[in-house]
Amino acid sequence: MIDSSIDAVHRKTRLRLSFSGIHLVLYFSFSLNWTQWGQGLRSAIGATEITGSLLMFVLLVLAFITLETIFMMLSRWGRR
User: Fold this and answer.
1) Could you tell me if residue 5 is inside a domain?
2) Tally of structural domains, the chain
3) What is the pLDDT of residues 4-51, one digit of tens each?
4) Residue 57 belongs to what domain range?
């Protein structure tokens, strides 16, 4: 019984580390706004006042929320 609980902790830790790694990569991708590669993000999209940086920020927040939801669903599924 103890081995199964330790395996469950190890599994959840690996899952959390992988999700945290994805979060960090996405979080640091926002730093593109201050580099040459992100030069296109600084300009307005079409005829709107919305810049690529603002759109990227909103999409990253939505991606973070989605990833956390997936993590919680996988955690519940793993307990069954």
Assistant:
1) no
2) 1
3) 788 888 888 898 899 999 999 999 988 888 888 888 888 888 888 999
4) 19-79
49 C-beta neighbours (distance < 10 Å), count:
8
Q: Which residues contact 16 (CB under 8 A, 6 or more apart)?
A: 71
Instruction: Tell whether 50 is covered by a domain.
Output: yes
Q: Select from 78, 77, 72 the least CA-distant residue to 11.
A: 78
Does 23 map to a domain? yes
What's the distance, CA 48 to chain centroid? Answer: 27
Three-state DSSP class for residue 48: coil
pTM assigned to the model: 0.77
Tokens of 71: 């993590």
Please check the confidence at residue 57 and state whether its pLDDT lies above 70.
yes
Instruction: Give the C-alpha separation, 79 to 53, whole Å.
Output: 39
d(CA 27, CA 77): 27
